[in-house]
Amino acid sequence: MAAITAADVNKLRTMTGAGMMDCKKALTEADGDFEAARDILRKQGQKIADKRSENETSEGFVAVSVSEDGTTGKLIALACETESVAKVADFRNLVQRILDAAVRTNAATKEDLLATKEEDGLSIQEHITDLMGKIGEKLDVTYATLTAEKVASYIHSDNKKGVLVGLKNVGGADIAAVGRDVAMQIVAMKPVAVDKDGVDSAVTEREIEIGKEQARAEGKPEAMLEKIAQGKLNKFYKENTLLNQEFVKDSSLTIAQLLDKTSKGMTVTDFKRVAIGA
User: Fold this and answer.
1) Looking at the structure, do residues 60 and 46 belong to the same domain, yes or no?
2) Domain assignment present for 198
3) Average pLDDT over the chain, rounded to whole?
4) Which residue among 21, 46, 53, 124 sits deepest, i.e. has the most Cβ atoms within 10 Å of its Cβ?
5) What would the DSSP string read from start to end of 36-74?
6) Whole-angstrom Cα distance, residue 47 to residue 90?
């Protein structure tokens, strides 16, 4: 059995960020083999991930990056179980590591991002698992990427909600203010799509059926149900699709009108909204 010194424990702690006692136990179990000890600590993180897989992750931190030319945005949300963990340096550093990896690799999907290898040879997923072993909480990543003629971004003041908005036909307009306004609208009003053409057909069919049932319950004639349901569907579009929503800062304008007023023909092509705990 190899003798485990305080220097060995400190070295492993520096390598992994794990607690002193966890490092000592791992080195003892690995008979002084540092790589084996790192694997033991990582397995500890995986055990915590498996054990706490059903736990709610309602705290965390959102970070965003938009390319210098303003055409591509990356949005990361790292969720945890408690507010205190969301504030520690190791957690915030991991958020930045994940965002940097997304920007560096231009990852198309969350799966691609988690598989990204860092300079230390570990994947992003392995770094997440390592931190779970250290803090004893479930961590969960949400990732969104968006490319457009111009991309605007917004992080809410609680750092738990973020938005990317793709704009086109911006002309010579300064999109900073209007882009922020539209992004804030998305955070607050949670639209389901850019416009009615983007609403899932299953959602449309469900809203029509709900409208018919409501009208039927009110005693409306059967022959009128379809027309009434279509009217309710149009109201749904107005309230739940971004371009048709009333602008929260000025209800005399829809978002479509706000954009067109800013620059003729300007519109939204897509948006991504991520939120932790809501």
Assistant:
1) no
2) no
3) 90
4) 124
5) HHHHHHHHHHHHHHHHTTTS---EEEEEEEE-TTSSEEE
6) 20
Of residues 101 and 25, more confidence is placed in: 101
Cα 126 from Cα 249, distance rounded (Å): 44
Task: Identify the CA nearest to 128 among candidates 57, 26, 66.
Answer: 57
C-alpha–C-alpha distance, residues 141 and 59, integer Å: 12
Distance CA 91, CA 97 (A): 10
**Are residues 99 and 24 part of one domain?**
no
Average confidence (pLDDT) over 137-166: 96
Q: Two tokens at 238? A: 């107005």
CB-CB contact of 233 with 211 (8 Å):
yes
Tokens linked to 118: 């860092």
* Nearest partner of 169 among 72, 259, 242, judged by Cα: 259
Comparing CA positions, the residue from 63, 75, 69 lying closest to residue 175 is 69
**Using CA atoms, how far apart are residues 40 and 27, in angstroms rounded to an integer?**
9
Structural domain including 37 reads 6-52
Please give the structure tokens belonging to residue 85: 């963990």
Residues 203-216 pLDDT 10s: 999 999 999 888 88
Q: Chain-centre distance of CA 151, in angstroms?
A: 16
The Cα–Cα gap between 49 and 91 comes to 16
Query: Among 147, 171, 191, which residue terminates a domain?
Result: 147
Q: What is the CATH number of the domain that holds 33?
A: 1.10.8.10
- What whole-number distance in Å separates Cα of residue 195 and Cα of residue 236? 11
Residue 52: predicted pLDDT: 64
Identify the helix (H) or strand (E) that includes residue 250: strand 250-254
**Residue 47 confidence (pLDDT) above 70:** no
Query: Percent of the chain beyond pLDDT 90?
Result: 64
Residues 207 and 233: beta-carbon distance below 8 Å: yes
